[in-house]
Write a structure and sequence with these properties.
Blueprint: H1 4-36, H2 39-69, H3 75-97, H4 101-126, H5 131-153, H6 155-176, E1 180-182, E2 187-189, H7 191-194, E3 205-213, E4 220-227, E5 236-243, E6 256-257, E7 259-265, E8 273-280, E9 288-297, E10 300-303, E11 307-310, E12 321-326, H8 333-345, E13 352-354, H9 368-379, E14 391-393, H10 397-400, H11 415-418, E15 441-445, E16 449-453, H12 466-477, H13 490-495, E17 498-502, H14 522-536, E18 541-543, E19 550-553, E20 556-557, E21 560-561, E22 575-578, E23 596-600, E24 605-610, E25 617-622, E26 628-634
Parallel strand pairs: 12-13, 13-14, 16-17, 17-18, 18-22
Antiparallel strand pairs: 1-2, 3-4, 4-8, 5-6, 5-9, 7-8, 9-10, 9-11, 12-24, 15-16, 19-22, 19-23, 20-21, 24-25, 25-26
Helix pairs in contact: 1-2, 1-5, 2-3, 2-6, 3-5, 3-6, 4-5, 12-14
Length: about 650
């Protein structure tokens, strides 16, 4: 599969090939100039060529240092290769610039004359090339001989130059070691610069405590991070919960300990991070709970500040379901501005969803500070009741570093340990913790919402989720729309959930130029595998992201618009809402397509309400100034 990591490797080696080719061309140019010019004019040219060759070698050193920084090559190997390349560069520079230039030129001239007299006769017998070309090849050989002779005649200068070049190489390799490059906003750092960057998680500190939406109102995940001051792992950890009073934020019931596990993220660079994943499965709907995480290390026990959240409504609730979210989050002021204006418009959201591209850390183990920045921003989001907001996320290509880049799911350094949301409600307390590396999941919220989050080829293959998608839609709707033996009774309609399917890469992109291509391009795979399932099972809406624009399609059935007015009961097509611009750059050029109802090159966030009375969905899309950019009322698909 073609991935962003492969693209990066290919780019590196293309750049390296260009640099090596440049150095080779410059060397040949030097030989040609020596071969054709007089000693008076060659001197100036020699200075220029020496400077260009040295510059090319410096760029190659930087190139190999970048390979090391991105862990494509070990740092010692990088240093050896770069140092070996500097040896001929130093010799060549000495020949071009040193006091022995005159003798080197004379040697070349004599070798050229000999080559013209002998090489021409030999080549005429072969009948392959001219005598002049034979002399040119001899000039190249004489240049190499001259370079070696000059270096050996001035060993002190040679060794001083060599030591300087080796020192330069070592400094570049060390500085570039552990490079991190993030986008939105663009930021590059190395281990040197990160030493001076402000840290969110301090040594021997429990930080980033947050809750993740569970399968239903009785279940959720609580995650806490711990930054150790040495290599000794914590001896123990705990995740505790209690029912809390809304006003006092104090426990009003017994405190109990959740089932939990601790992950050692040993792969992270410069960061001894441990993550505790707690799992609650005995909660009540629409109830305030308080959670805390603690770690027991060799230096003591460290507890987090408590977080207080309200669980989502239970199955028998008659409450409307309100939630906010978007995709492709910009880790800067504009991303927070959008979240802030959404909280002003909808002060008590029951949860927040992020449709992929949460931090733009690209699965680089050196980019842990970007994830810290993202999680710290999420912790600042508080409802009008003073409660924290549970998160629901799906992965994007910037979580995985491309598409299906790792065969081992534990090699996704951040997303899977930080966002464990796969959950099987088997009705049994004390069952084993589910696989945290599974990145698709579903959520029954209240009595009217069925939310399904999928992984669009980022960490799990699209076709591997087909059965899960079909089964969860049928469970949420209470009927298999493809089974002629099942009838759509009024009882089924009254209990039917409004199904929302969410995934990162769009089935119907609207950009003029779409940059995903190749066998792993998720767009045709989503259209091939998931859209037919959603069409057959009458899903009313799909949330898409990735393209950094806003769009709302007309109702589509099998990819074509259907004659249905939004707002009418029981529409016959899927409305696709997208496309992920939660603060990322805006103003992209949008193509004109017949399936689009509304499209704009803006940043936006969605405020959604599913009404318990009839299961319809109202979606409002607002920009960073709080201005309503679009709204729609969607209904259950019955036809």
């Amino acid at each position: 599969m073609v991935t962003h990591s492969v693209y990066a490797i290919a780019s590196f080696f293309v750049a390296g090939g260009v640099l090596i080719g440049l150095a080779t061309i410059l060397t040949i140019v030097a030989a040609v100039l020596i071969f054709n010019l007089t000693s008076n004019t060659s001197r100036v040219v020699a200075f220029v060529v020496a400077g260009l060759v040295t510059t090319a070698q410096m760029l190659m050193t930087l190139f190999f240092a970048l390979l090391s920084g991105y862990n494509f090559l070990p740092a010692p190997v990088t240093f050896v290769i770069s140092s070996l390349l500097w040896i001929p560069t130093v010799m060549f520079g000495m020949t071009m610039l040193g006091s022995a230039w005159r003798s080197a030129f004379l040697i070349t001239k004599v070798m050229k004359q000999n080559a013209e007299s002998s090489g021409g006769a030999y080549l005429s017998k072969a009948g392959a090339v001219t005598a002049k070309m034979g002399g040119f090849c001899a000039a190249l050989r004489s240049l190499a001989t001259s370079v070696f002779v000059v270096a050996m005649r001035q060993p002190l200068l040679y060794w001083i130059s060599s030591v300087a070049s080796f020192t330069f190489t070592l400094c570049i390799v060390l500085i570039m070691d552990g490079i991190c490059y993030c986008t939105n906003p663009s930021h590059i750092s190395t281990w040197v610069s990160r030493r001076n960057e402000p840290k969110v998680c301090l040594l021997d500190d429990t930080c980033h405590v947050y809750s993740l939406l569970g399968t239903n109102s009785s279940r959720l995940r609580v995650v806490g991070h711990f930054q150790a001051s040495d290599d000794r792992p914590p001896a123990d950890h705990s995740v505790t919960a209690c029912e809390a009073d809304l006003l006092s934020r104090k426990c009003i019931g017994p405190i109990w300990q959740l089932r939990s596990r601790m992950l050692d993220l040993a792969d992270l660079s410069e960061d001894r991070r441990y993550v505790a994943q707690g799992f609650a499965n005995n909660l009540s709907g629409s109830t305030v709970y308080q959670f805390s995480v603690s770690f027991t290390a060799a230096t003591g026990t460290f507890s987090s500040k408590s977080i207080t959240i309200r669980t989502v409504p239970s199955d028998n609730s008659t409450s409307d379901i309100t939630f906010i979210g978007g995709g492709d989050y910009h880790s800067s002021s504009i991303g927070l501005e959008l979240l802030s204006v959404a909280l002003q418009r909808m002060p008590k959201p029951m949860f927040l969803f992020i449709g992929g591209d949460l931090s733009y850390a690209n699965n680089l183990r050196t980019c842990y500070l970007r994830w810290d920045r993202y999680l710290n921003a999420m912790a600042t989001l508080i409802t009008s009741e003073g409660l924290h907001i549970s998160l629901m996320t799906i992965p994007g290509n910037h979580e995985s570093g491309g598409y299906l880049t790792e065969s081992d799911p534990t090699r996704y350094h951040f997303y899977t340990p930080f966002m464990p949301q796969f959950d099987v409600d088997d009705g049994q307390r004390g069952s084993a913790l589910e696989d945290y590396t599974t990145t698709f999941h579903s959520h029954a919220i209240g009595n009217r919402v069925g939310l399904i989050g999928l992984d669009s080829n980022c960490m799990v293959a699209i076709e591997a989720q087909n059965d899960f998608l079909r089964d969860r839609i049928i469970a949420f709707r209470g009927i298999d729309a493809t089974d002629p033996q099942q009838s759509l009774s009024q009882q089924v309609i009254n209990r039917m959930r409004f199904v929302i399917v969410m995934y990162h890469n769009p089935a119907y992109p609207v950009l003029t130029s779409f940059d995903d291509s190749g066998d792993d391009d998720p767009t045709p795979l989503v259209a091939k595998h998931w859209v037919p399932i959603m069409d057959a099972q009458k899903v009313p809406v799909a949330l898409e992201f990735h393209e950094h624009v806003y769009k709302r399609t007309k109702p589509l059935f099998r990819g074509s618009p259907v004659p249905f007015q939004i707002g009418a009961q029981g529409g016959a097509g899927i409305v696709f809402l997208g496309d992920g611009a939660l603060g990322v750059f805006k103003g992209r050029k949008i193509s004109e397509t017949d399936f689009v109802q509304v499209s704009k090159g803006i940043n936006y966030i969605n405020c959604l309400t599913v009404f318990a009375s009839n299961g319809s969905l109202r979606v409002e899309s607002i920009d960073e100034d709080g201005v309503l950019q679009d709204s729609a009322l969607l209904h259950l698909r019955l036809a």
